[in-house]
Structure of FixH family protein:
Amino acid sequence: MMAMHGSSAPPADLDLSRSKATEKGVFLASVEPEAGSFKQGELHSWVLTVKKPDGTPVEDATIAVDGGMPDHNHGLPTSPQATAHLGEGRYRVEGVKFNMGGWWVLRFAISSPAGDDEAVFNLTL
């Protein structure tokens, strides 16, 4: 019975980079835990940095946050929100929680006068 509820291993070629071009290439995005690290089961904040392809910080973005566990087909146990613009294209995202080990996805929908795009980051715990 436990095998039915366990997670399978993430794909061997899973992209775990924390910096990348967004899906359509409108922005360059990077994400990191605000405290430098995070623990399973605890609420934590992340910082999403958004730049134009030429490296110019995006100061006027609206950020929506989503995510979940692809292996388990469920979303995040919380509803993270972008709560502050920190300057230099950096946005604080609060209320992130990973309640179990495995493969997680954080998805950021980014909207600004420069365009609309999405950044998807894979994490493993």
